[in-house]
Amino acid sequence: MKVLIIGGTGLISTPITQMLIDRGDEVTLFNRGQRTARMAHFSGHVRELRGDRRAFGTFEAQVREAGMFDCVIDMIGFHPDEVESAVRAFRGRCGQYIFCSTVDVYARPSFHHPYREGGPLHALSDYGREKIACERILMEAHDDRAFPVTLLRPAHTYDDTGIIHHSLGRSTALLDRIRRGRPVIVHGDGQSLWVAAHAIDVAGGFVGAIGNTRAYGRGYHLPGEEWLTWDGYHRVIADVLGVPLPELVHIPTDLLARLAPGRSGVCEVNFQYPNIFDVSAAREDLGYRYTVPVARGFGRIVAHLEATGGITDSDAEPYYDQIIDAWRDHTQAMIDR
After folding, report:
1. Chain centroid offset of residue 199 CA
2. Where are the alpha helices (DSSP H) in the chain?
């Protein structure tokens, strides 16, 4: 098949590109050419179009000149004007348009779990609201013949060199804290549910959607399938590191978001809510398979960080213990009243 990927060198799109090359598809990548190492890896195996999709007129001319495509996969559509441009560029010129959306489009909190594809859309984050607007534009433009659209909604996705999220952001000092037995902050009571999926599995879902007429005009979830509490999530990390789980210090989410807004704001709009999603449609229609358990995937991340010296010394982040001390003092003061 003749496939154009807008992006093609990102977290999910890199394995998509490799899978398509491996199966013999004719792959074209449109991007700014900034990830030179990954582009070099694909050199000779893909056609390269370089440009800025936000230069709408130039972008639309470039992709028109590139010819017709059996499928266009848009991995970097974040704003409504970008997908409006894509509709202008590809309506009647591609066999299918696959849009990478996000599970962050859903209303939170929800009173029904797991989330299903037809659930109400009401994002708390700007990112999610922009994706909702993009989805609506695309579904209004959807036409089974002239512009078949498929929406794919990944959740938290990582690769072997990726990030292990936690209640205070993305710092790898969390691993050092756990390894050294230092207390670890967890938002809320640690019982909200979280999922994570390896990029290789998510990419397989995208590839399964290509040319798949069952996916026309539909949206699908591509998340992990292990439903972990945040306490359990930290236990997995400790097991990967081969150490006992240290003390988990539970701090109310709204308070934590104010104590460290730059690091824990995501807890308030996302992590405090159950993030569990029905994947039965993706399994049935796209052949989606969850094959990399969290423990194995996180083990690969830790191995990469250790090999590259990527684990930050937790002593370099004094704010962390300052938050714990403040919380303990506050708690003791209430007890003593």
Report:
1. 9
2. 13-22, 36-42, 56-65, 80-90, 126-141, 173-179, 199-209, 230-241, 253-259, 261-266, 280-281, 294-308, 318-336
CA distance 106 to 131: 10
Q: Which residues contact 40 (CB under 8 A, 6 or more apart)?
A: none
Token look-up 């010129």 returns 93
Please list, in sequence order, all residues whose beta carbon lies within 8 angstroms of the beta carbon of residue 119, skipping any fewer than 6 positions away: 106, 107, 110, 112
Instruction: Report residue 23 CA to chain centroid gap.
Output: 25
CA distance linking residue 132 with residue 134, whole number of Å: 5
The answer to whether the Cα torsion of 298, 301, 306, 309 is positive or negative is negative
Q: How many CB atoms lie within 10 A of CB 87?
A: 16
Sign of CA dihedral 286, 290, 291, 297: positive
For the stretch 35-70, pLDDT in tens is 777 778 888 999 999 999 999 999 999 999 999 999
More confident of the two residues 316 and 40: 316
What is the pTM assigned to this prediction?
0.95
What is the C-alpha end-to-end distance of the chain, expressed in Å?
71
β-bridge pairing 184-187 and 71-74: unpaired
Q: What is the pLDDT of residue 39?
A: 78
